[in-house]
TrEMBL record:
Protein name per its UniProtKB record: Cytochrome c oxidase subunit 9, mitochondrial
Biological process annotations from GO: mitochondrial electron transport, cytochrome c to oxygen
Keywords: Membrane, Mitochondrion, Mitochondrion inner membrane, Oxidoreductase, Transmembrane, Transmembrane helix
Family named by the database record: Belongs to the fungal cytochrome c oxidase subunit 7a family.
Membrane topology: Single-pass membrane protein
A single GO cellular-component term on record: mitochondrial inner membrane
Example of a GO MF term: oxidoreductase activity
Role summary: Component of the cytochrome c oxidase, the last enzyme in the mitochondrial electron transport chain which drives oxidative phosphorylation.
Record-linked CDD domains: CcO_VIIa_fungal (cd22888)
Biological or metabolic pathway of the protein: Energy metabolism; oxidative phosphorylation
Length: 58
């Protein structure tokens, strides 16, 4: 006779949930620190350059 499978679905759900939260958090940190902050810094530098040129023209 085959023994019933008990608790398999719950263990799989906990594993899937923790894996997805972990990978999602890692992806968010990668995006934030790898792309977003650098893009904001480039944007800030551009606007500072524009302001300096505007002030120097007067």
């Amino acid at each position: 006779m085959i023994a019933p499978i008990v608790g398999k679905l719950r263990k799989r759900f906990i594993f899937d949930l923790s894996l997805s939260l972990g990978l999602g958090t890692a992806a968010a940190y990668s995006y934030w620190y790898g792309y977003h902050l650098k893009a904001v810094e480039r944007q800030e530098q551009f606007y500072l350059k524009q302001e300096r040129e505007k002030l120097n023209q007067k």
